[in-house]
Amino acid sequence: MKRLLIILLTLMLLTAVAYTWLVYRYKPVYSGEILVKNLENSAEVFFDDFGIPHIYAESAEDAYLTLGYVHAQDRLFQMDLLRRVGSGRLAEILGEDLLETDRLFRTLGIGRHADWSTRTLQEDGSSEWKSAAEAYLNGVNHFIEEGKLPPEYTLLGINPEPFTINDMHNIVGYMAFTFAMGLKTDPLVTKIQRELGPDYAKHLSIHTLPEHHVVPNHHPERDKNSRIIGKTLSERLEGLPVALLQGSNGWVIGPEKTASGSVLFCNDTHIGFSQPSVWYEAHLEYPGYSYYGYHLGGFPFGLVGHSRDHSIGLTMFENDDHDFYEERRNPENPQSTLYGNGSLPIIVHVDTIQVKNSDPDIWATEVSAHGPLINKVVPEINEITHLPVASWWVYLQEPTRALEALWKLNHSGNIHDAEEAVRLIHAPGLNIMYGDKTGNIAWWAAAKLPIRPEGVHSKMFIDGSNPANEPIGWIPFEENPMSINPPSGFIASANNQPDTLPNGIFYPGYYYPGERYRRIAKAIQSGTGWDAEKIKALQLETINDQLPENAQILLGCIDKGAHPDFQPILDALTNWTGSHAIGETAPTLYYKWLYHTLHGMMADELGEEWFQKYLNTFLYIRSTHSLLRAASSPWWNNIHTETKENRDDIVKRSLETALQELTDQWGKDSRQWQWGKATYLEHPHALGAKKPLDKIFNVKAGPVPANEESINKLSFLINKEGRYAVKAGPALRNILDFAHVENAEGILPTGQSGNLFSPFYRDQAKHYTQGRYRPQLMNKAAIERSTERVLRFVKK
């Protein structure tokens, strides 16, 4: 017994020693002194109780150098992955499993576009924003050279390369790709139209339906230089009672509707969950500049954030900026495509993809006049057409100016500066939300919108041999969707369709139907006196009032009393308000029943693989209501049976299947089928795909009120299994009242740091799932009082 005790004590001591060594080896440094050779003057970083760096410097270059260092200290591995995915270099560090992903991105040409953007930037000469970006890179690279690299590099047996401007452009390219929905949607639409015909297609919401909700435009008056003509500060103050931001939600409430008499700004960007989460918060102060921003890994300027005078936020515009052209090879010269009465050459790019622990992969990409041919990397295209298909993408049509645009948005002094910055964004399509201290509120759709010829269906494959199918120009920026100081007193965007443009165009896209927008707009229109606490309740709402209408359609197809053993949950569904609280039972039945209904409708025509693809597109969310109510739709008939099924047949059979599966899953008492049992949220780390590393790096958050298109969107994929992993949701929550800028609040899904040994790795996860917020400190005295973690950067 004594010997066993000694062995146990020895093991405990060795474990403690090993853990202490690991912490010393890998934990980020949050206090002390860092010597930096490229620094002009000393700078200080105060890390608050949640690890947010508050940077005080004497110049922009010193501030951004310091930001680069602390950003890399907390997020280097994430930054490394972001630059590698767009340029097709993941297999180089993660092995052969990522080779197909690399081939896809090499084919799309994001890396080639990044090279073009970098060359263009270098030709532009010096500028404030370029100097700041280069200073940020100096900070990142100083950490790589002298800081404590995170444990992922040890586990993978690699060392990070220095960061460059080109890496920033690759990161922007990847971000643009993640927002381009055409690659997932257009092949499916083309397949349905060609193989099933218009009777099937017309029951899908390929285009926005009249029942969907649009964002109103309010185009401002402009002077002869196209500048906004708006009220002055004094004119705005006269009528006020007091002195004077992936899917995503963003709304800005004007002074006349707020309790404080100042603009109230709210943003929550919907992005896929991961560990670390996508956004990195940082507060920068130097002479003439004060800004609290949310930064993308490897990017120096905030995409979301606020100064003491203005705020910016974003949602996805979801415009259609990705077309696919069917090309016809010239039979006399296969390295060219037929075009009108002649032909155009195909250019071949040959890449060498390095693969860890394997031979390099030599990959050739053919590029037609319309773009790269993608059949090899999107194999389902070959089920639709035998012709090569080219990807035409707005993002690739000109160099990105994202660095310049974001610098100018961060440093905007007024609404005119902000609009000039927005003009520089050509892709991806973004809804830029704006509010300021003087009472202005604004929304711009930031994108270059191609004008397509009449008759070109942008969601179907286009004949690339016909010159008449080419885009014929761009819509002028002044005619883009926008709303500047509208009479309603508020602006909201939830990835839904913008209203008709001044030129009469109802611009096509992959917009959501607008349930989130409807709830937001209805609430704000209902009254005044809005403040941060009221906004929190709205931002955290998990009600979708469209879904009970769908449920009533399903319930109307079954015989009342046909399932007496399950009357409690059928009653719950009958009386459902659309709430997704974890104690509800109605959602558990609704989504299971809906899945089997849609499967019974569509899987016979589409096949299992394409049906699953359908559930992954915007068509699923936008079309469900119209599909369920269309009793005469050909989708209801099973093409593999001799009898002709109708809606009631499919819905009744689907309910029986759903009830049996739920009984097998959760027991006979349907009152115990709580929604919280069926949902879960786990934030996956890149290395968590390999067991047992998931137990170490992933962050579990437990049951959450997962939902479909509620304001607090926590999205999942409906499935046969009836267990719903939440894949995406608000990657930040942000609330700011311009009457109390220093009292702004926000939250991240897991934590500020991506370093496993940091105390800020998962410290916000419980706050997030419980709907709590934390302060976004900007008052230096309060910051100094709240922390002893001070890291000083000193010139070497």
UniProtKB/TrEMBL annotation:
Keyword Translocase listed: no
Classification via InterPro entries: Ntn_hydrolases_N (IPR029055), Pen/GL7ACA/AHL_acylase (IPR014395), Penicillin_amidase_A-knob (IPR043147), Penicillin_amidase_dom1 (IPR023343), Penicillin_amidase_N_B-knob (IPR043146), S45 (IPR002692)
Gene3D superfamilies xref list: 1.10.1400.10, 2.30.120.10, Glutamine Phosphoribosylpyrophosphate, subunit 1, domain 1 (3.60.20.10), Penicillin Amidohydrolase, domain 1 (1.10.439.10)
Family to which the UniProt record says this protein belongs: Belongs to the peptidase S45 family.
Domain of life where this protein originates: Bacteria
CDD domains: Ntn_PGA_like
Keyword annotations from UniProtKB, A to Z: Hydrolase, Zymogen
Name assigned to this protein: Penicillin acylase family protein
Keyword rRNA-binding carried by entry: no
